[in-house]
């Protein structure tokens, strides 16, 4: 039998300062680690200086320079500056640019207002209302009509076009995706069959073939009179494509809902539509939100394919800008610029998605 | 009578059937309309129908060609085949390098070394958030501007040349004993399999572990080399003639840029799959393994990797499929794979969009299906029993 | 059944100290998790360690097989001192086996392969020998007919019994139990405790971290009470439960035994 005297709480032995201890543990803890550290430093040495040199130190920030005076050792940022309007607005006429700006401004205002009325009971009405009304407003602003001059879609381009296509894509594919997700879960064999065939078909082929099909084949299905706007064809193609992928994401959410929810809804006597709209879908969508954002990110990346079918998204503008005899050979600057813009947008989206994931996983405890 | 009809209408099963009949009818109606219009439009535009065009002469040259015989006099069908082969070649190349790179980066993400971990994370965050098409175009433009002209090619031992037109490798001339080398490789592999089996049996029976790596090196690596040297296999070396290289195998710069971009991009997803596979293995597993006295290597090989791979391989195979589909973006740089040749050039010449696009899609669907089947078989075999 | 534990290895109880812990201090960052622990375990002793959660009981036994590193003090297991030396660590781990709270069976291997893994790859036994021994041990814990099933096909109690058999397969001199029944449904606890009681009678050195006081009363030679990273009191079961000396132990016993 033994009783022990109470010991004191002490600080851990600090043989080195915190910084040195960190270095020792994280970089130099074993011979393998030491070797790895040197390899890592070498890689950084190989890659970082050339990149920094080209983009910053040797680059020409003189915005009045032209192609000749810019030089070739580093980036010529004057190229970007002089073509900035084209990168953002495409070929939209100068005098009408205010319409595009208004369209974007309204979005910002809507989102800001939405954040303000977060607690209001009318929030759902507000969101649904905006989703129904804003597209019409945006379309009129961009395209014309109602007293505004018409700007054909072949003049749309740049970041504007990318955003428009991505937005239309996600909004249009969402309800369709829900339908197909439900369809694939359905007990009705025909409905299930159609859904499965559609989803697996679209997911098995590259987007470019769908875009080709929409571009070339779709007009053939309609009476000769109708002239199909090029952008519209692309939008249909993108929507068809995105629908299949969203459907799979939502199906994952549907499957994650415990059987008990379906059974409770049935037990209370809800019809299929009521059960789906009031109980099942809200939960499925909530669970799937991180993956839905992921799908949106993929869609945003896919808008670059418009380049191949002759529409002028931001990437295509690089080609347009460099084919101008004033700025030959500046593709690299263009690609780097577009890459940076897109990267910032997508990285922000994926960070937001991660935050959502964390929020939802803690909620579900 | 009326009430009976009403009750029928409210019957769930009847409703389901009615709904489906309605759905099929609606779809059939629209399909018929679409088809009808299509036939009309085709007639009006004077486009032919059917697959007869496949036996027509193609009339265009193809930039890249592996294994097959092709010239502008070949048929469209042969162009179709060249397209398929080119797609597969770039896909397999991309898959190989993406896997290797993805494995390295995935493991680096879990390294205890801070710098290595950070570099891997930065790599993934950068290349995952830039569209693949942009990456393809970027690397292509870099290759075009940074690589030297054929006259000043980067030269590796006078056998391999790299310039802005492509990568040039020597090609073994089949007749000159190359088959012996190939045969010796096969023999070496079979012999090694036997050696491994024997060593495993010995381990089972006596507990003694024999290292078979020397055997591997000797049989599979050294043996073919010895045979090669013995028979003096002839190689067709690339040589600069005029403005360009002749002879040997040439991998066009377009192929290069495409394969490179695809590898870099897909590697990010593969790395993440591997990382989450390894992380999915419960910590307790590693603890139990090391508490038993297993070395790090043994623990990895016997406990961690078998479980990690089961989780990681399905998404990795999905990425292989994505890479194959992404190879269709070759049109942007002019690499002549299936979509560029068939849905591009042939379509422009022949005009029969529907048949051509359907054929193209069928090829990809077949590839998807094959990969899905492989995945299913894998999942069934590897399923952890009881879960 | 006792032939399975090599009788030569086990001396008479009370002969020699098989585990010597002196001045053991461990920190997690700035948190002082183990405060100057001194402990000697004789060969064949059954020690039960108990205490409130966070007291460091699991940390203590995990230091014995070096699953946790410690910054100050020394641990000597069967003559081998535990340091960063990989060889010494492996030596200790080949003589010490651990049973975990969450079993940690390998789900991708069958039950019998779970058992033969360490004997084959660490102790270089032949497959035949390892399998025979494994089947005998499985029989002993009552799982023989499940030998070719997979862990996820068994209940929690069965899995833990397999884990015990797996720990025995390497003929260890010391067995560490880290809350072996805490993750089990109540009706399965007794089947595992029964196996542990049988083991205790065989003469193997055991250190158990557990809340099962009935088990402690039945088989422990000594019970050690820990709180806030230090050993507060230790005693023979009788005195431990009936004549607690320190206030903290009295409080703990009140809480535990009032259930």
Would you kindly provide a written description of the structure presented here, covering whatever features stand out?
- The complex is a heterotrimer of chains A (365), B (387) and C (259).
- Chain A is mostly helical and 365 residues long.
- Helices cover 71% and strands 1% of the residues of chain A.
- Chain A has helices spanning 18-26, 31-57, 67-70, 77-82, 84-89, 97-116, 123-143, 158-185, 189-204, 207-217, 230-256, 259-268, 272-302, 314-323, 331-363, and strands spanning 2-3, 312-313.
- The two termini of chain A are 45 Å apart.
- In chain B, the strands form 3 sheets. Chain B has a 4-stranded antiparallel sheet with strand order 1-2-3-8. Chain B has a two-stranded antiparallel ribbon with strand order 4-5.
- Chain B has 12 helices and 8 strands.
- The longest helix of chain B has 34 residues, at 12-45.
- In chain B, strand 1 (154-156) and strand 2 (160-163) form a beta hairpin.
- The mean pLDDT of chain B is 86.
- Chain C has helices at 57-64, 86-95, 111-121, 127-141, 156-168, 186-202, 213-219, 237-242, 247-257, and strands at 17-28, 31-42, 46-50, 72-77, 80-81, 96-99, 174-178, 205-209, 222-227, 230-235.
- In chain C, helix 4 crosses helix 5.
- Chains in contact: A-B, A-C, B-C.
- Chains A and B meet through helix 2, helix 9, helix 10, helix 13 and helix 15 of A and helix 2, helix 4, helix 5, helix 11 and helix 12 of B.
Number of strand elements of chain A: 2
Distance between the termini of chain B: 54 Å
Q: Figure out the total of helices of chain A.
A: 15
The quaternary organization reads as heterotrimer
What is the element string of chain B, with H for helices and E for strands? HHHHHEEEEHHEEEEHHHHH
User: Helix and strand string of chain A, N-terminal first?
Assistant: EHHHHHHHHHHHHHEHH
Q: Supply Rg of chain B.
A: 28 Å
The outline of chain B comes out as: globular
Query: What kind of sheet is the major sheet of chain A?
Result: none
Percent helix of chain B: 55-70%
The percentage helix of chain A is over 70%
- Strand residue content of chain A: under 5%
> Given the structure, what is the number of helices of chain B?
12
Low-confidence regions of chain A: none
Distance between the termini of chain A: 45 Å
């Amino acid at each position: 039998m033994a009783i022990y005297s109470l010991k004191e709480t002490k600080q851990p032995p600090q043989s080195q300062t915190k910084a040195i201890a960190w270095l020792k543990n994280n970089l130099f803890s074993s011979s393998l680690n030491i070797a790895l550290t040197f390899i890592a430093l070498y890689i950084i040495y190989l890659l970082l200086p050339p990149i920094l040199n080209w983009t910053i130190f040797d680059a020409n920030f003189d915005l009045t320079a032209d192609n000749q005076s810019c030089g070739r050792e580093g980036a010529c940022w004057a190229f970007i500056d002089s073509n900035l309007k084209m990168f953002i607005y495409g070929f939209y006429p100068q005098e009408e640019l205010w319409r595009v700006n208004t369209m974007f401004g309204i979005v910002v205002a809507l989102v800001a207002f939405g954040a303000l009325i977060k607690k209001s009971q009318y929030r759902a009405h507000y969101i649904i209302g905006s989703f129904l009304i804003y597209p019409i407003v945006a379309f009129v602003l961009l395209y014309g009509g109602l007293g505004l001059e018409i700007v054909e879609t072949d003049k749309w381009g740049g970041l504007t076009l990318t955003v428009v296509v991505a937005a239309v894509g996600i909004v249009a594919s969402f309800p369709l995706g829900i339908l197909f997700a439900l369809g694939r879960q359905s007990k009705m064999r025909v409905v299930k069959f159609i859904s499965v065939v559609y989803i697996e078909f679209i997911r098995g082929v590259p987007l470019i073939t769908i875009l080709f099909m929409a571009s070339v084949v779709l007009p053939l299905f309609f009476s000769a009179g109708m002239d199909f706007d090029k952008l519209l064809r692309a939008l249909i193609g993108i929507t068809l494509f995105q629908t299949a992928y969203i459907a799979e994401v939502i199906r994952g959410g549907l499957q994650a809902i415990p059987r008990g929810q379906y059974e409770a809804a049935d037990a209370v006597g809800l019809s299929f539509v009521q059960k789906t709209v009031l109980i099942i879908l809200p939960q499925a969508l909530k669970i799937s939100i991180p993956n839905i954002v992921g799908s949106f990110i993929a869609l945003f990346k896919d808008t670059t394919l418009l380049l191949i079918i002759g529409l002028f998204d931001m990437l295509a503008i690089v080609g347009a800008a460099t084919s101008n005899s004033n700025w030959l050979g500046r593709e690299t600057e263009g690609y780097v610029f577009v890459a940076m813009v897109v990267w910032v947008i997508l990285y922000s989206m994926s960070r937001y998605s991660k935050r959502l994931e964390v929020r939802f996983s803690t909620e579900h405890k | 009578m009326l009430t009976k009809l009403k009750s029928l209408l409210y019957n769930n099963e009847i409703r389901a059937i009615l709904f489906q009949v309605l759905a099929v009818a609606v779809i059939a109606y629209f399909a018929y309309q679409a088809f009808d219009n299509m036939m009309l439009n085709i007639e009006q535009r004077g486009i032919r129908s059917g697959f007869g065009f496949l036996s027509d002469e193609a009339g265009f040259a193809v930039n890249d060609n592996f294994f097959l015989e092709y010239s502008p006099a070949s048929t469209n069908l042969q162009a179709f085949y060249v397209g398929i082969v080119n797609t597969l070649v770039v896909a397999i190349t991309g898959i190989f390098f993406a896997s290797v790179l993805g494995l390295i980066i995935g493991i680096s993400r879990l390294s205890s070394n801070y710098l290595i971990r950070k570099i891997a994370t930065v790599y993934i965050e950068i290349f995952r958030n830039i569209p693949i098409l942009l990456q393809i175009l970027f690397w292509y433009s870099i290759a075009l501007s940074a690589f030297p002209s054929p006259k000043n090619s980067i030269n590796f031992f006078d056998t391999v040349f790299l310039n802005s037109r492509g990568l040039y490798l020597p090609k073994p001339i089949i007749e000159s004993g190359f088959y012996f080398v190939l045969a010796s490789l096969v023999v070496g592999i079979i012999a090694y399999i036997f050696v491994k089996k024997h060593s495993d049996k010995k381990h089972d029976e006596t507990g003694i572990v024999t290292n078979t790596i020397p055997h591997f090196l000797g049989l599979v690596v050294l043996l073919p080399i010895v045979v090669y040297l013995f028979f003096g296999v002839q190689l067709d070396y690339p040589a600069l003639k005029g403005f360009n290289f002749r002879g040997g195998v040439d991998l066009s710069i377009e192929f290069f840029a495409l394969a490179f971009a695809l590898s870099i991009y897909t590697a990010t997803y593969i790395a993440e799959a591997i990382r989450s596979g390894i992380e999915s293995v419960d910590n307790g597993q590693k603890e139990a393994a090391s508490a038993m006295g297993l070395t790090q290597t043994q623990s990895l090989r016997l406990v961690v990797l078998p479980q990690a791979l089961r989780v990681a391989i399905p998404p990795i195979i999905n990425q292989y499929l994505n890479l194959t589909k992404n190879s269709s973006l070759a049109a942007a740089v002019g690499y002549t794979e299936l979509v560029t040749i068939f849905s591009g050039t042939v379509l422009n010449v022949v005009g029969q969009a529907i048949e051509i696009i359907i054929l193209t899609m069928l090829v990809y669907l077949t590839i998807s299906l094959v990969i899905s089947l492989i995945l299913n078989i894998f999942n069934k075999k590897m399923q952890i029993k009881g879960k | 059944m006792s032939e399975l534990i090599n009788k030569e290895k086990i001396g008479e109880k009370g002969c020699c100290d098989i585990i010597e812990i002196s001045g053991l201090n461990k920190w997690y960052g700035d948190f002082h998790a183990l405060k100057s622990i001194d402990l000697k375990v004789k060969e064949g002793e059954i020690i039960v360690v108990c205490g409130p959660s966070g007291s460091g009981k699991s940390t203590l036994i995990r230091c014995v097989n070096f699953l946790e590193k410690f910054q100050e003090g020394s641990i000597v297991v069967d003559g081998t001192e535990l340091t960063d030396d990989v060889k010494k660590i492996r030596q200790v781990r080949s003589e010490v086996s651990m049973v975990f709270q969450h079993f940690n069976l390998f789900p991708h291997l069958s039950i019998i392969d779970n058992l033969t893994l360490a004997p084959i790859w660490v102790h270089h036994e032949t497959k035949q020998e390892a399998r025979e021994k494994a089947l005998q041990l499985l029989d002993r814990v009552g799982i023989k007919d499940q030998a070719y099933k997979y862990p996820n096909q068994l209940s929690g109690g069965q899995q833990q019994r397999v884990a015990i058999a797996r720990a025995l397969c390497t003929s260890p001199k010391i067995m560490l139990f880290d809350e072996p029944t805490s993750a089990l449904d109540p009706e399965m606890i007794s089947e595992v405790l029964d196996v542990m009681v049988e083991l205790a009678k065989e003469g193997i050195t055991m250190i158990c971290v557990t809340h099962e006081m009935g088990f402690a009363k039945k088989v422990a030679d000594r019970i050690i009470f820990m709180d806030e990273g230090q050993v507060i009191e230790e005693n023979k079961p009788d005195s431990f439960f009936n004549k607690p000396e320190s206030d903290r132990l009295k409080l703990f016993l009140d809480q535990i035994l009032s259930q």
